[in-house]
Amino acid sequence: MTNIQTAADPELIVFSDDDEGKDRQFVNALARGLEVLRCFRPGEVFLSNADMAKRTGIPKPTISRLTYTLTKLGYLNYSDSLGKYQLGAGVLALGYRMLSNLDVRKMARPLMEELAEHAQASVSLGTRDRLSMVYVETCRSSANVTLRLDVGSRIPLMTTAMGKALLCILPQAERDYLMDHARVHETERWPRIKAGIEQGFKDYQDRGFCISAGEWQNDVHAVGVPMLGADGEQVMAFNCGGPAFLLSREKLEGDLGPRLVALIKTVEKNLGRG
Asked: Which residue intervals define the domain IclR-ED in the entry (predicted)?
């Protein structure tokens, strides 16, 4: 089995030098190259080889070869004046191809827009990437005050309504693995986080949706519902969220939660899964 260790950043993985000797199917160089691309965080335009070596735990000489190769392939651009790298158009092209092949986005968007306007909030669709949920579609209402998260935004898996909803339908082994991984990075907060996840499981069983009321951010309330994918597809989840003062728990439980459940059922039916 591949020897994978978590880095200080829970979204990065450290691959040991002998990984390929333990798993002949695992290409260590490819894995390391992809981790280099994942080093870039929202709002960061440029990173140096030293920055990436520190974040990944990969030796700097190896980082230099990886960034050289990724630049040749168009996944990174190099600034001579800064001596640093930025993500290239190749990364965007890959992301666009993934999004363009998600039929659920096209099917769900009109329904999401309708619910967002009713709730005067935001309605989003996301999928899991390690310990985060990544938005692949989002619709905002015409309200002046709303959440400003766009396609590609990342939110925590364990403390958000969308993330907890997705956890509810994962296989037990995968769910346990993710929760163990999260516990390592959230030692002090873990008892509270775990209690929120367990409440989410109960809410989903009883009502068909999960709630996050200030668990991720104190001033954000949201409801989340998972959607089972067809064979071979990623599991996804929807949420409806906004400022806490606009979305009371009572509104989430009595109005928006049931409406979001109905939205998912309609999408699944339109996709031929209902």
From this structure: 90-273
Tokens linked to 187? 């030692």
Residues 48 and 45: their CA atoms lie apart, in Å, by 11
Under 8 Å between Cβ of 34 and 213: no
Instruction: Output 22 or 211, whichever has higher pLDDT.
Output: 211
Structure tokens of 58?
A: 């990969």
What's the pLDDT tens digit per position in 8-25? Answer: 566 777 666 554 556 788
Question: Which pLDDT does position 1 carry in this prediction?
Answer: 37
Question: Are 236 and 170 within 8 A, CB to CB?
Answer: no
User: Which of 185, 252, 255 has the alpha carbon at shortest distance from 212?
Assistant: 252
Q: What is the pTM of this model?
A: 0.86
- Judged against a pLDDT cut of 80, whether residue 268 lies above it is answered with yes
Using only the alpha carbons of the chain, give its radius of gyration.
20
Query: Do the beta carbons of residue 10 and residue 131 sit within 8 Å?
Result: yes
Give the other-Cβ count within 10 Å of 190's Cβ.
15
Residue with tokens 């990342």, as numbered in its chain = 154
Query: In whole angstroms, what is the distance from residue 241 CA to residue 213 CA?
Result: 10
**Cα-based angle 240, 241, 242 (whole degrees, multiple of 5):** 145
Tell how strand 4-6 and strand 13-15 pair up.
Answer: antiparallel
